Amino acid sequence: MRGRPVLGTLAVLGYIIMIVPILFVVSTAFTAGDALTFPPQGLSLRWFGEALAYQPFISALVSSLQLAVVSTALALLLGVPVTLAIQRGKIPGKSLVEGLFLSPLVVPELVVGLALYQQIMIGLHQTSFVALLVGHTVLLLPYAVRVTGASLALADPAVEEAARGLGASPLRTFFSVTLPLLRPGIFSAGLLSFVTSFNNVPLSLLLQSRQFRTLPVTMLDYVQQSYDPMIAAMSTLILAGTVVIAIVAEKTVGFAKIFGGINK
Amino acid sequence: MTNAAEFSGVTQSYGETIAVDNLNLQIEEGKLTTLLGPSGCGKTTTLRMLAGYITPSAGTITINGVDATRLPPEKRNLGMVFQSYALFPHLTVADNVGFGLKLRKVPAAKRRELVLHNLDLVGLAHLADRKPKALSGGQQQRVALARAIAISPSLLLLDEPLSNLDARLRVQMRSEIRRIQAETGLTVVLVTHDQEEALEMSDVMVVMRAGKVMQTGAPATVFTAPANRFVADFLGYENFLATADGSLLTVRPEHLRVGTAGGTTGGAPATGLNLPAVVTDSVYRGVDHIVTMTATDAAGQQTTLVSTTRRDTLSSDQSGVRPGDRVLAQARDHEIVRLAA
Ligand SMILES: Nc1ncnc2c1ncn2[C@@H]1O[C@H](COP(=O)(O)OP(=O)(O)O)[C@@H](O)[C@H]1O
Ligand SMILES: [Mg+2]
Fold it and tell me: Touching check for A43 and chain B: CB below 8 Å?
């Protein structure tokens, strides 16, 4: 930072912009009072208790977790083989295929949502869980392809060739060499996908139903009707969960590897 | 004399580029054959076709007399050492070396024994439980070698195995690889662009250029009797002189002597080369003293001549030459190599 005053100042400003609102939300969650105000009035855990006892939040949390876990698994199951085919396979028009799988990044989610609403919920009479599962999987595919692709691009193809030379069939090579090499990449892709699905609002908003509603949508509903510290408490709980995930990620793979993989 | 592998009319092209051009080559059993040539001449492509990673566009490759042209790598039983070593980063040194044995269903106890034996061969038995990341480049190289040898391959293939090592280690590994070859009796094909390496290590040397074989033979033969100008050039010959009858003579710079016109340095040879020349430069480079001259050859062409002499064998006459001096470029008959064209 020294010798780069502008860059340094911007960095500090960036941190402040990111952290101050979080501090605001977290501190108001611990208020003993009835209003969502800053500074909090007194200190208590009562709103955490209320949030955890509020049935709509809890069932929505379960729905969100289900959706995030299953759509992440599907995105990886589809995305990893696609990545391998794109990078290691001898398929014609590789860049076209890659473009196809990255396109959800540029198509507006509302358009995807609307299409799924028409086709899957109205057309095929499926539940909103199925529609959301399809929507989220499509949404997550680019992350799965990109992040695992980045870690595959860093791996020396000669390592897989070496396995073949030593007598391993292509399938055996995949399971005993390629997959272990890809493990950090798959882990990062999964993490990123999970968080992306869990936080998604546009798709979930469009495809929700009374039976299946995700947590962010439920919280949004709640804020529109009542503005009390329970919403801050729920947000803080989500934040805590995210921090735990981040710590696990750092301990097992390392941030440098996870986020390095996205840029390279 | 049997062949461990044979290329017949093998061609590999990438679009417009012809990497290997109608290659005919026999790899003799139990010998160390080097493929030598400048970067891009098709050495790696040749080796990778032999290993099964590339299928030739045309021609056949046989291994131990059996057509292997379209056999996948896992069915060839060849040991390959990659330039990047390509060790399995998630496995220990022992598991790297045992990888091929495990696939061959060698029981664990026997496997352990073979792994240690092969690690011992490269002097690394004490590092069996390390991960590759914790090894130096030279050690990784040896593990890669042990891994390739452990499967008792019918051929051991090495692609520029020494090019990533530092100079001292490189020279040491040359004799190490020769020793391992002698101990195992393996047929080895080694790719290199380093003529010194090829000359020192090979039983048979194959000099390549632009996908074609320029010359095949024992190092001493190729070195003393290069088949053409390209081979001579690549092996460090300079001083190319056209003759009146249209052939080409060449003399290594260390064989070309500078005689002063007065003739105090041993006098003019009775036969051989004794060509008037003008000194253009006279410098020291490390242990060598280098004299550069221009002369006109028998075909009437102006050529540059270079003579190098070791500092400690330098006469005062030679070290005293200055640019502009008129001298005689001299070589004895047996030092002159006559090239076809
Ligand atoms: N996969 C490929 N695609 C296109 N051209 C290639 C490929 N592999 C090699 N070549 C070309 O073939 C020629 C021979 O390459 P290579 O066998 O790697 O040479 P060497 O190992 O002697 O340096 C070079 O001109 C190279 O550019
Ligand atoms: Mg090469």
Answer: no
Percentage above 90 pLDDT, chain B: 75
Q: Do residues B116 and B128 touch, judged by C-beta distance below 8 A?
A: yes
Q: Spell out the SS3 assignment of B9-40.
A: EEEEEECCEEEEEEEEEEEECCCEEEEECCCC
Give the contacts of B309 (CB within 8 A, at least 6 positions apart): B254, B257, B258, B288, B289, B291, B318
The CATH topology of domain B238-339 is OB fold (Dihydrolipoamide Acetyltransferase, E2P) (2.40.50)
CA distance B151 to B34: 22
CATH 1.10.3720.10 is the classification of domain A47-258: yes
* Per-residue model confidence as pLDDT tens digits over A4-27: 788 888 888 888 888 888 888 888
> Which strands, in side-by-side order, build the sheet including B238-242?
B238-242, B248-251, B336-339
> What angle (nearest 5°) sits at the alpha carbon of residue A243, between those of residues A242 and A248?
100
Task: Give the chain A residue whose CA is nearest to the CA of B104.
Answer: A167
Ligand 2 being an ion, which residues bring their Cβ within 5 A of it?
A: B 44
Q: Cα separation of B256 and A226, whole Å? A: 99
Instruction: State how far the Cα of A222 lies from the Cα of B192, in Å rounded to an integer.
Output: 72
pLDDT under 50: residue ranges of chain A: 1, 261-264
